[in-house]
Design brief:
154 residues, alpha+beta, two-stranded antiparallel ribbon, 6 strands
């Protein structure tokens, strides 16, 4: 049974996000579904410390993506864990794929996030929740999508 993280310990039995079938297609709908899926995998990584799937879905040159992976791995090091930080993407719009990388615009809502020390105390001040826009560049290579660039819309 799923149990969210709190000061007493990390989350338990976190469901692994499942890639929707449409996200395997080189279509506008596929790019949108993949981008939503990528953010669900990011949310999973915050909740579990498992960044393997996130790294696999992110291009090697995606600086922002790699920074997120590094930050999550650091937050989960030395017996620490994260509570909160859950991500939702209520609005997603992609350009139609045209053989070029596809631009996807998303509304990203992230809940307040707390990194806990091994004794459950806060490691640092909580990171406030956010509701922001993100711009992702998705690339389809014939076998699937990857996020090749990610940035915040300011």
């Amino acid at each position: 049974m799923y149990k969210p993280a709190d000061a007493s310990g990390p989350a338990q039995n976190v469901p692994v996000p499942v890639l929707p079938e449409v996200a395997k297609t080189e279509t506008k709908e596929g790019a949108e579904a993949f981008a939503k899926y990528w953010f669900s995998v990011l949310s999973y990584a915050y909740e579990t410390g498992d960044t393997e799937h996130l790294s696999a879905l992110s291009g090697p040159d995606c600086v922002f993506c790699n920074g997120l992976v590094d930050n999550i791995e650091t937050a989960w090091s030395d017996g620490k864990w994260i509570s909160g930080g859950r991500i939702e993407t209520p609005a997603v719009t992609a350009d139609a794929p045209s053989g070029e990388p596809t631009r996807v615009t998303l509304q990203v809502i992230q809940k307040e996030l707390v990194i806990h020390n091994p004794d459950g105390s806060p490691y640092q001040e909580a990171t406030a929740g956010t509701n922001s826009g993100s711009q992702a560049t998705a690339t389809f290579d014939g076998t699937g999508w990857t996020i090749s660039k990610l940035s915040l819309i300011r």
